[in-house]
Amino acid sequence: ADGNIIGVESLIRWEHPQSGLVSPAEFIPLAEETGMIEPIGRWVIKEALSQNKVWHDAGYANTSLSVNVSARQFRSHDLPQIIQKILEETGMNSRAFDLEITESTVMEDMDRSIKTLEELSGMGIQIMLDDFGTGFSAINNLRFLPVSGIKIDLSLTRDVATSPGAATIAKAIINMAHGLNK
Questions:
Q1: Would the pTM count as exceeding 0.70?
Q2: Tell me: the pLDDT tens digits for 61-113?
Q3: Which of 123, 37, 36 is nearest to 74 (CA)?
Q4: CA-to-CA distance for 98 and 47, rounded, in angstroms?
Q5: Residue 56: how many CB atoms within 10 A of its CB?
Q6: Which in 9, 54, 68, 166 has the greatest CB count within 10 A?
Q7: Adjacent-strand bridge partners of 99
Q8: Residue 41 burial (CB < 10 Å; 0-12/13-18/19+)?
């Protein structure tokens, strides 16, 4: 309301020398398949947190940064330790850092996901459940997940201005999330 920037999201793009900008939809699946997503993901988190530290030091101390984590990164047993190390290296406060993890990734192994999410939230990191409402529905499981918020998938929000049904679904999800303090 006051015009201040309160949050930003880090999105990766690949600038190919001949093809120009390449969509993540084209290269992220290959990076996942080959295992390159883990070093790419670490690099993205470090670069994003380093940039957010610059912004904080320049006076934008209330700006939070959101970074997407791939399924393979999330399944890595040492993700919390990797993130802790990057936070220490960059000097960034964990409370200004949001991790976005897709609903389908979290639903793959609920017990392990909850353990990882609890460890990350215990570090002060805000966890956002991304692409909510696609694939598996986590409505029942949402109450068990230590997440700070949910991001409703575009397929459910695209028509909210023109479709009463879409608006009703979006409102229901928002009310549910508020009721669960998400």
A1: yes
A2: 889 999 999 999 999 889 999 999 999 999 999 999 999 998 888 888 888 99
A3: 37
A4: 14
A5: 17
A6: 68
A7: 67, 127
A8: buried
CA atoms within 13 A on the CB side of 28: 14
Rounded (10°) angle between helices 37-57 and 24-34: 120
- The answer to whether the CB of 80 falls within 8 A of the CB of 116 is yes
3-state SS, the chain, equals CCCCCCEEEECCCEEECCCEEECHHHHHHHHHHHCCHHHHHHHHHHHHHHHHHHHHHCCCCCCEEEEECCHHHHHCCCHHHHHHHHHHHHCCCHHHEEEEEEHHHHHHCHHHHHHHHHHHHHCCCEEEEEEECCCCCCCCHHHHCCCCEEEECHHHHCCCCCCHHHHHHHHHHHHHHHHCCC
Pair of tokens at residue 173: 């999800």
CB within 8 Å of 114: residues ≥ 6 apart = 144, 145, 146
Give residue 114's Cα distance to chain centre.
15
